[in-house]
Amino acid sequence: MAKYEEMSKDEKIQKEIRRLNRIYRNIPKNQKAVIEGLIRRAAYMRVTLEEMEEDLNINGYTESFTQSKDLTPYDRERPIARLYNTMNKNYQTIMKQLAEFVEKKPTPVKEQSDGFDDFVNGRGE
């Protein structure tokens, strides 16, 4: 198995699709059909965001820019930074939608005592 860094983008996406499919393997088929597209989009976005993050870590979020060679350059947000922020927001939205399909185990509810049983059981003492 190739290291993750050595994989092609398509291989990384397929790996992420498999990971997400394992998480949702137990949901009913009718619901699975609904989330297949979300899984594919989420996998693509995650891999693309990782690539963008690498670029941003190396090249930064801002760049020196000038309208003309006669003007003093100024720092501006790099277009990839804006794209990253937009895609990350959309990815978080998709992941929230997918999270709604995760099988939730009910939390045991501890019944609160109204004191009646303690009162009745304590009478004989």
Features:
2 strands, mainly alpha, about 120 residues, two-stranded antiparallel ribbon
Structure description:
The protein is mainly α. The protein has one domain (8-102). It contains four helices and two strands. Strands 1-2 form a two-stranded antiparallel ribbon. Strand 1 and strand 2 (74-77) form a beta hairpin. The protein starts with 8 loop residues before the first helix and ends with a helix. The model has no long low-confidence stretch (mean pLDDT 87).
Termini Cα gap: 71 Å
How do the helices and strands follow one another from N- to C-terminus? HHEEHH
- State the helical fraction: 55-70%
Spans of at least 5 consecutive residues whose pLDDT stays below 50 are none
How would you describe the shape?
A: elongated
Radius of gyration: 26 Å
> What is the number of helices?
4
Number of strands: 2
Residue fraction in strands: 5-15%
Structural class determined from secondary elements: mainly alpha
Characterize the main sheet: 2 strands, antiparallel
The largest sheet has its strands arranged as: 1-2
What is the count of distinct domains? 1
Average residue pLDDT: 87
